Amino acid sequence: AQKGQGFSVQQPQAKVSVAVGETLTLRCTTSGHARPGPVRWLKGWVTGNKTIYDQSGSFPRVTRAVVDSDTDFTIHIRNVQPDDVGTYYCVKFVKRDTGEDEVFKHGHGTEVSMHDTALVPGVLAAAVMLCFLLLLLSLFVTLCLYRRQRQGGVGSPCPSRTVAMGSFPSLPLQCCAGTPGTPSEDAESSHLPSQHSSKEENDIHYADLQPLPPAPRHGRSPGTAPTEYASLRVAAK
């Protein structure tokens, strides 16, 4: 009895979850010295327990992690099935004088549960699909903004400019740089004569028609009012 006082069983896993078909690992180590006797793994306790592993005997699905160790009794259970759900105990037995095995020390137990393997791939596939859709959406928004910026830079009119020349009053002028052939929205510009120049398209033309004082008629047709045309060209900044 004194020889077994410092003996202990360490079963560190409180709970373990596995999927059907996986390999279950149950950890158990011992320390100290005890009377001779085997170490076994039992499923369940008190009543209805079942021996899962014994140092003697044949257990096809169960193997030792460290073969022939006197302190490490960790085991691997292959091809786990739903019937394997339960609580497992690592138990140290000692031999009685009668030759029977008696429970000496045992671990706190490891509760084994099952989880569905289909959940993990399903969640992963959903996450991948969501990331792909977000990527497509960001690309679409970026493309729309780029096209709108390009269209706005080519077709938008320039801001109005104010020109003051000599005695002429300051008048706001509209330019349409980059959009040749587009008619101006200014009502007065529709009366200006057409100008063709080989210079840059962003030159600003200004015309003012003023009636001249009466002059002697020399063959003019009746009803024709004399006019004066002045053209000013200012380079747009």
Automatic annotation (TrEMBL):
Transmembrane feature ranges: 123-146
PANTHER family listed in its UniProt record: SIGNAL-REGULATORY PROTEIN BETA (PTHR19971)
All copies of domain Ig-like, residue ranges: 21-90
Chain positions covered by the region annotation Disordered: 178-237
PROSITE patterns: IG_LIKE
Keyword list, A-Z: Disulfide bond, Glycoprotein, Immunoglobulin domain, Membrane, Signal, Transmembrane, Transmembrane helix
Matches recorded under Gene3D superfamilies: Immunoglobulins
Taxonomic lineage from the root: Eukaryota, Metazoa, Chordata, Craniata, Vertebrata
Start-end of Basic and acidic residues biased regions: 197-206
GN (gene name): Sirpb1_1
The name this protein goes by in its record: SIRB1 protein
